[in-house]
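Q: what does this look like with zinc ion bound?
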Amino acid sequence: MHESSIVEGILRIVSDEAARYGAARVSRVSLAVGLLACVEPRTLTACFELLAEGTPAQGAPLDVHLLPLRGACPACGDVETRKRNFSCPSCGHDAVHWTGGRELYIASIEVPSPDATDLPATAQTMEG
Ligand SMILES: [Zn+2]
């Protein structure tokens, strides 16, 4: 499945970042996804929940933010839309030159503050 390989990539990055900052776990992951990235946010979060088990991201919510699509309209100039409707959102021109829309990147990774840790260090295991 498309989404599961994306989530595996995300979890690799999250685990690397958590290790780099010495965080045993992360509390939230925010993902920015272009309108045309061809991923289903609900499938992404479901995959994340499943595959995050046993990683520092276990139990952390995945926020998926859809990015607006930006384009250049011959009549209006720079425009952006959040709909998969490729005519100009302000004048209806259908010759808008859309750019991007296929972005998919981690916008932020939150780690709990050190004094908020509720897991004893010994509860961490690298097995599995
Ligand atoms: Zn326009």
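The chain has a mean pLDDT of 88. Helices lie at 2-20, 41-51.
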